[in-house]
Amino acid sequence: MVQNTSFYCVVPLLFVSLLSSLLLHSKPSIMSFLYTEKDNGMMSNDPDDRSLRQVEKTVVIPKMVKAEANLRCADEVAAFTECAKSSGLLLVFKCREVNKAMQECIASHCQQADVDEQTEIFLEQRRQHRLKMQQQKQREEQAAQEQT
Questions:
Q1: Which of 38, 62, 99, 147 lies at a C-alpha separation of 20 to 30 Å from 140?
Q2: Higher pLDDT, 92 or 33
Q3: What is the 3-class SS of 73-129, one letter each residue?
Q4: Residue 68: which of 103, 110, 99, 104 has the closest Cα?
Q5: Which position has the higher pLDDT, 35 or 145?
Q6: Could you give the CA distance from residue 130 to residue 137 in angstroms, rounded to a whole number?
Q7: What is the pTM of this model?
Q8: Does the CA dihedral 135-140-141-147 come out positive or negative?
Q9: Is 29 helix (H, G, I), strand (E, B) or coil?
Q10: 23-57 burial, b if ≥16 CB within 10 A, otherwise e?
């Protein structure tokens, strides 16, 4: 018996379409949880804005902390990698101590102070990027004005 799989693909699309049409054509009061009058629903491009978006808090900063911890624990990571290569399938048993040392090193470099340090680094990098983009936009506007 052949099942009609297109039904399972169409129903979610219809639901998403209906939901988006309700949200887009509704009164602004319903949409107030998405947009504020201050930023008009757009991300701020102010270089001095120090607020973090949710993705920056939960994804970008933790990735930066983990990468920095891996750099600071390069010796332990290299030792574990070498042990894992030489042990094969028995690495769970043979590399237990090396793995424990590597995990302790990484955990010691993933403390709140390290998160705060990486947050400051990220905010400064974002500030520099936004300044650069503002300068580029000003140059483009000046070039457009000169052409007219």
A1: 38
A2: 92
A3: CHHHHHHHHHHHHHHHHHHHHHCHHHHHHHHHHHHHCCCHHHHHHHHHHHHHHHHHH
A4: 110
A5: 145
A6: 10
A7: 0.63
A8: positive
A9: coil
A10: eeeeeeeeeeeeeeeeeeeeeeeeeeeeeeeeebe
Q: Is the pLDDT of residue 26 over 60?
A: no
**pLDDT by residue (tens digit) across 82-100?**
999 999 889 899 999 999 9
Pull the structure tokens for residue 96: 């237990």
User: What distance in Å separates the CA atoms of residue 64 and residue 122, rounded to the nearest whole number?
Assistant: 8
Residue 102 to residue 107: CA distance in whole angstroms? 9
88 CB burial (10 A radius; 0-12, 13-18, 19+): exposed
In terms of pLDDT, which residue wins out, 14 or 109?
109
